[in-house]
Amino acid sequence: MEHTQDSSLTNLVSALEARARAAGNLAELGFSIANDSYDLLAFRQALVFDGDKAASRLQTVSGLAHVTEDSPYLIWLCRVWPWLQEQFGHQPGWYQPVADDAAMPPEIMAGWREWWPAGVFALPLRKRTGETLGWACFLLDNPPTEQQAKNILHVSLTWSYCWEMLQKTNNKPWFDRLRTLSSGRRWLAVLAVAALMLLPIHQTAMAPAEVIALDATTVASPLDGVVKTIHVRPNQPVKAGEKLFSLDDTTLRNRLEVAQQSVAVADAELLATTNKSFDNLQSKSDLAMLSGRTFEKRAELAAVQAQLNRIDVVAGHDGVAIFGDPDDWLGRPVSTGERIMLLADPKKPGILIHLPVADAVSLDIGDPVKLFLTVLPLSPLDATITETSFQAVLSPTGVAGYRLRAAFTNTNEQARIGLRGTAKIYGDRVALGYYLLRRPLARVREWSGW
């Protein structure tokens, strides 16, 4: 019977070692240590810590797929673990506090009574050089038997070796790997990287963009007044001569009546003075003044009539009326020349690009652009730059940038005015090394001043 039990323990130890060797990374190894060893030690909970002393951190908790460090228990555990390490030193062993243990801080004793059983059996996992890689802790109701301690210490040697090998595989710096190469291969690697850094590529920049009309006509207020009526809807196609909006004519109608009465009075005075001039020399001298006043009043009347004729603004050509909400314009005072809307030709769309200053690259007229519309992200539209700017202005989002305009290479019905997206701009060809280091070098220069 004893021989059968020893054989079973040997098989269990071999199985634990095989699972440790099968781990593909440190996370899998920690999971195996915290969960697969239950058959060897009937623990209440198992904990695996990565590192040693102040650098030690909780990696795995038995029964949990992920460690949530904001739970009250784990917050307390992070406080108690540095103190426990001091009690163990760097040796495996069993620790069980006593009721009147003055060396244990009160907050640790309170948490122990709430969350932990009688004691903890901890063993360090070391490199072959003796350096501590991590810790495995098992919370038990009773101290482990001599046979259990012997078996778990034996398995811990395999855990330590696997941990060391996985750590070398996962965390080996690239320069350490380079050192393992022969001198010839190192030179080949350096030459390959240098050749790759000289590979010519286009400078590129990404910027928000909007489809606009290239030859849009500004429709402005012809005189000072108040908007009375908007005759069209936003983005509505219109024909040449069709009414777009009208200004309120109340003030002008009143001025027209006053001007007409002034002309009638001036004409009557001129006629009366003309009749008197045949017998009265004084009347003859007043004729020139009254005649000039009559011409003045008629000119004022003509000016008011001309303004009345301009209160209805019509489209100068066929196109699409582009403006905001009509309700925002109704009853709004406007001044002469203030833009109300744009009259655009939908058959001649273009792109307005706001290139942030931080992302600016060297650009010339004719450089290619790809527009990725938000509604069609997988179908880029080709265009070329037709206009650049040298002065940065604020974009609608409040970001300082350069305004660029581009024309589509081919006519595309998908490019409807008003659609937005992201433009990818291709600048001059530069070496890959310059492309990768351009912004870091600019930051260093700003910081250093050279």
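(the above was protein one; protein two follows)
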Amino acid sequence: MFTTLPKKILLLLFIFALNAGLLNSLTLITFFHQPVTHMTGNVSLLATDLYFASYSHLIFLIFVIIAFMMGTILSGFILGTSDFKLEANYGYLLSVELTCVICCLISAMLDLSSLVIIFATLSAGIQNSLLSSYKGINIRTTHLTGVFTDLGLAIGLKLRRVNVPIQRFTLNLAILAGFITGCLLSIPLLKYLSHLAFIGPTILILFLCSSYWFKFFSHSTDQTNK
């Protein structure tokens, strides 16, 4: 059931998707040409590596997939729900994601490519589960397959003159715009900062994490004073 989406939620989705696009482009361009925000291609590569007996890369891909899964498991364990609520658990999880991105930055500075990929994938797994549902709306901010699917279905329904809530478009367009913006920003960041480019997603998640904790404590104080 699609409901009215607050502008703050759309902005949050945009920033999350921007971070995912930025992380994915940075790892694709600089480290092994490895995607970290979606696992479909990595699972396909597993079969290729197995067929051609590329066992070292096969083992690495297994660790990448496990890292993504660990991120989602961690999200489920800490949050205890898939629907967004203003709770401290979201702050804890954002803090964990921030730690992962900082580890990406440090690993990149030390030229530890494998660790960059692992920490980036762990971060993506956390983020993809962090805001997976809002008032019954399923959300994915780290990859675009679902976005294009949902937009295509919505357009097809519109062509059949079926009533489609505008929120279905605004939600997916916010994610799409954010992801593309992140991809575009990765180029100048790499050009001018090289491996320090990971300071971009670090600043983004630091902003989200600090903003969330500020909002949470402000809300808690207001509730206490009532």
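Reviewer note on protein two: The chain has one domain: 19-217.
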